[in-house]
Specification:
86% of the residues lie in helices and 0% in strands. It has 142 residues and is mainly α. This is DUF5082 domain-containing protein.
């Protein structure tokens, strides 16, 4: 059995997976920053909905109607920015957490592959341990 070739393939797969996971995490972190920035800008903008104050300057049914529509617009936008955006940010955080956990598993498998490299260098005396380690890594890759 060509343990050396098998170990090289395992290292290649693990390296590719680690790079792939890091890219996904990086894209998600960038998306999260963009959403948070957009949320912050939008919160500043919706404050303008309530300007100017119409307390004494406007009276009558048109003023009441206008204020009602303005309050409703403010409430809807505020809810979207505080609830929907937060929910979206939370989903991004959960995905990042899952990818970080997967990245940890890849690192553990990589450490195991490094151990297998050391066993391979020991030669015949470590063949059983090497075989067991490689089979465990193959199972992880499936």
């Amino acid at each position: 059995m060509d343990y050396s070739g098998t170990l090289q393939q395992i290292h290649d797969v693990l390296s590719h997976k680690a790079i792939e996971l890091e890219e996904q995490i990086s894209r998600l972190e960038k998306a999260k920053r963009n959403v948070e920035k957009e949320q912050s800008l939008a919160l500043e903008e919706i404050r303008q909905i309530m300007c100017p104050s119409l307390e004494k300057g406007w009276t009558g049914s048109r003023a009441v109607s206008f204020n009602g529509v303005r309050d409703e617009a403010y409430t809807v936008k505020y809810r979207v920015l505080n609830e929907d955006y937060e929910r979206y940010i939370h989903k991004i955080d959960l995905k990042i957490f899952a990818l970080e956990a997967e990245k940890g598993a890849v690192q553990a498998a990589s450490w195991s592959a490094d151990r297998a490299d050391l066993l391979l260098e020991k030669g015949e005396e470590a063949v059983d341990a090497l075989h067991s380690t490689i089979n465990g890594l193959k199972g992880w890759l499936k």
